[in-house]
Every structure is written in C-alpha cells, then in structure tokens.
Amino acid sequence: MRFLIALALLLGFPVAALAGTVSSPDGRISVTLDADGEGIPYYSVSRDGKPLLAKSNLGFNFTDADPMRRNFEVVTEDSTSVDTRWEQPWGERRIVADRHEELAVTFRQRDAAARMITVRMRVFDDGIGFRAEFPEQASMKVANIADELTEFNLAQGGQALWIPAGDWNRYEYLYSMTPVDAVSTAHTPITMVLEDGTHLSFHEAALVDYAGMWLRRLDGTRFRSQLAPSSRGAKVVREGAFTTPWRTVLIGDGPKALVESNISLNLNEPNKLGDVSWFTPHKYIGIWWEMHLENSSWASGEKHGATTGNAKKHIDFAAKHGFRGVLIEGWNKGWDGTWFGNGREFSFTEAYPDFDLEEVTRYAAKKGVRIIGHHETGGNLGVYEAQLEEAMALYARLGVDAVKSGYVADAGGLIAPGPDGKDVFEWHDGQRAVQHHLEVVKTAARYKIAVNPHEPVKDTGLRRTYPNWVSREGARGMEYQAWGVPANLPDHVPNLIYTRMLSGPMDYTPGVLSLKGRGGRDLPSTLARQLALYVVLYSPIQMAADLPEELEKYPRELAFISQVPADWAESLLLDGEVGKFALFARKDRNSDAWYVGGVTDSDAREMAVDFGFLDQGRKYRATIYRDGADADGLADTRHQIAIETRTVTAGDVMTIRAAKAGGFAIAIVPVGR
Questions:
Q1: Looking at domain 282-408+442-564, which of 3.30.70.100, 3.30.70.270, 3.20.20.70, 3.10.20.30 is its CATH number?
Q2: Catalytic site residues?
Q3: pTM metric for this prediction
Q4: Position 72 pLDDT exceeds 60
C-alpha cells in the first residue's frame, strides 16, 4: 500500500482517493480510513456488508491554533496483523487473546504548517479501537486542545442505556433506557441495541495524561466526543509527541460479545510493574456500613466508629470467617467539620486519639488479617499529593498492602494548586485528575500497595499496565441502598453489567444479608441475590458489607461468601438481556470449581443454566442458593431462600426461578470422573 501511495504522489494523483480499508480477522467488520473531498479525515464501519457507523469525521480544535479539520491528504498507510496470548496476574480470566488487524494512516495538512497526524485503527472480531498520534513537529511544539471532533455517526437507530455526563454527581446516576436519538451528553461506557439487534458499546481505553471523553449527541443518531473541562481553558495540554486514548466500539450480535470482550485490556500497554504477586485477590469486611446506617460516625466523638476496640472486633470476625482484609474508615484526623469537597484538614499519617494504628496492625498480623488502609481526600488533590509519599511509606511499614481512597466532591469541585499556588477547581475526569490518579497508583506500586479509588476517574483498562490498580467505584454502589435517596432500583445491577462493568472491576460492596438500610429501610433485593452479586459483579477485592453481627445471623450464606473466589480462570455470560437480567459462569483460578450467578430486574423470571461449560465425563456437586418459592425482593418475603445440593454434569440443563429483584448463586465442585 505504501508503494502505491508513493507512486501516486510521484505521478501527481490525489492520494486521498486511495481509501485505506481494514477488516476484522473473521471478515465481518470492515473499516475505511480516508479524507474526503474537503480533506476532512474520516472513518466508517460496516458489518456483514451493512453500514454500522456511517462517515464519521475526525479532527481537533485548539485554543491557540487553527483547527485540524480540513485540507488533509493521506501520505502513508501501514498495516499489520496480531495474534497473541498473554496472562493476567489476576482478572476475569487468566489467558487473554489479542487477535486483530491494524491500519495506520498518516494525514498531512495542506497548508504552511503542514501539520501531521496518524490515525491508528485496530479491528477485532468484537469491535474496534482507534486513536490519534501526534508526532513531534516544529509547527506544534505544544498542543492546547480545546476539544476533539471525533464523531460516531450511527447508520441506524435503536435503544441506548446511559447516564448523563457533566452533571454534579459524577458517574453516580441511575441508568436510563431511551431511544438513541433522545440521548443528550453521556458518560461512557454507553451501550446501544440497534434496530437490527446489533449491540454496541462506546468507551475509551488507556486514558493517560488526557481528559476523559463524554459522548454528546449532535443530531439524529450522530454523536461527537466532548472532553471533560479544565481550569486552564484548554482541556488537554501536551508537549512534543503524544497519543490520545483509544476510542473503542464493542460490536456484537448480542450482549455476550460485549461482556466477554477484551478490547479495553488489549489496547493498553503490558504490565510495567513486573512481579505483582504481592497483591492477593481477596474478600474483606470493614468499619463502613455502620456509618452509612448512622450507627457511628467518621468524625471523632462519642459515635466515632474507628476505635481500637471496634477494629479488633472486626479483625476477630475476619479471622474466624476467612476474610483477608478489614477496611477501617475514619481513623485519621480531618473528619471533623466540613470535609466534603474541602479536605484541607486531612492528615494521612495522624490517627485520632482513640485509634492506635500501630497496635491495630500488630493485632491484625497476629490474627493473619491485613488492614485495608483508607485515604479520603474530600476531593483535595493538592493536600493528598503533598502527603502521598509519607502516607504510603507508613502503610508499607505497617504491612498495609491495599488502600481505598475517596474523592468526595461535586463534579467540577476537585481542588488542586494552580500555577500561582492558589486553589483551582477541576473535574473528576479532567486531565489534572487523570494525572493525579496515575501518580497515586505509581507511588503505591513502589511500596507494593494496591489501590481502590472511589469517586474515581473511570476505568479504561489501565489495570493491565498497572496491576496494582485493582478496582474502583465509578457508579452508584451499595451505599445508596442504605441512604434510599432513592435506593438503587432492581434493574441497576443488570444495567451495570452491560455498561459500567464493561470498563473493568467495580467495588460495589455487596453482602448486606440483613437487607436493611438506614432506619430499617428494606433493600430491594432477595437474600439469594446478595450471594449472586459476588459472581455477576467482578472485582478482585470483594466486601461483605453488612455489620458482623448481621452477617453471623446467616451462617450458610456467610459460608458461601467466605468460599466464593475473587479471582477467576474464565468468565462466561451464559445468557442475558441488556438492562433486564444476566447469568454468569466463572471458573475458580485456583481449583476446578465453578460458580454460577444470576440476577434479574423487578420482573421474576426463569433462567436456564446449561452446564455445558463443565468438563465432559466428570461429575460435580452443585450447591444451589435460590429464591424461595414465595420469595419477592420487593416484599416481606425477601429473606426466603432455598438451599439444595444436586449432582450435575456437562450435559445437564437446570431451570431456576429468580424472584422480583432476586437472583441465585451456585457453587459447583467436582466429585470425580
């Protein structure tokens, strides 16, 4: 192809007429990269010969330079094929296949500056990823990007599952299912089911030193990227050569292709940390739910939850029931007064007088339990960054090898030092916040500490490159069930599975077996559903969120939570429908056991579990935790549960009823061949 382009240039032919095309390994997806008659770079996508994304323009606006939009010509094209496998240190599956075709097209602007840009397109069987690459060039030593002009122009309508972007509550909204042409500005991942049944999900990968992307509908079914704002005016400032994050579109005949896709991981760089065996996927309890119930407080005083005595009580419980970790929130100074969106008083090394950090970590070590550290910033990046090194060093010295952080502030309310040293305000997904999160992860890695941020920047697969970035929040979690403002609706978990969970692990904090929130408020869930959450919502760290005394009231269910793995060798979506239900099977990474989990929305439904994923010719003992005959997650019978044991083989199919707001879990252990 490069020879043809060079020949065309030599003969004086317009090279823009030589459209670059690349197809997926299976040939179903085809992508064209080119510049049109006005010299506007664009791409288009077809599937099975039918248009999927019509002509979608590419380009950039700047705060201090002419746009990179028109008058481009194609100067080079390069293509390559990749078919490799790599191993995750932890994850939904051990082995990840990376099989794609790549086309890189370099465009040059026909003006005095002659600015250049390369668009690199990778096409997988289950979607595409593309990014812009800026070479070092004298005409643009510093790029002050006002916004991207990347379009996603759908060739047909359908339904979209999405949450709004650019509003006060970050990513913490209930999802809406609307026609595609009714979307306004959405966070990604945003998932669509088109009129012909094709499933799409739009997101990004490898978000590094750049602003997060929102998806804004322009008209009809045409969307454009919109970058999260910055206090500087320019949303992204980069010097020299750089690349944008990958813009990704997952594509499939149904939800299975979206849920099982590895595109986000494959578009990130390999592990930069080396041996990370010091991180162990695990389950934990904590001094946390009691604050959300208002039984105790983060602040000091009579209701203070993080006392030495309370911590030891939790450590004893963890040791007795096999939990590796105990999270302790509110141990450090700074929680008194107004800390929300402020964080100026937080110390990450000084404890309140009624909490002895040295004694608590010593006691935990004696019991074989690890303390999970906690760093709430109140959204103050500058205060945290100033103490970051000292705080991580303290935890490392005390054997604390995981930390949960928090950034509780309204969107646009992160506090950071400006160029003159005075405070400026930034967005949770702006470039400044993206830089901050990666600095925290890298610093923690030097001390062999895993990081789990809440109120975070969204996940874009960087856990491959930095495997100590083990989980995060980034959506409405279990605490909303305590508050009821409103509580998460029964369809929230199925919605998460087909949107937020496509980006990576989530610390949803399941395991409220009491099914009670603040003031005795009933949670919309069955007891069996709480167990199913450990299978359907992936995280390599999983909490049993309820109070220890409540968990102990349900010994059989607690035993399941204690045994269910937090790390998998394989993960399969057996069945599901976007926003309605999901049925998973996952294989334990450390044994031949499998686990199945199913959840539904507010409708009761029957799900057929096909055990074809099991080894042929082998028998298994299946312990089934399902909703009782009269169970209803929206009624007084939410605690009704039936637990039974059966022998199953790969040829069996079992139909299980999930109640309204219900679900089920199955532990499957081999018993012989």
A1: 3.20.20.70
A2: 479
A3: 0.96
A4: yes
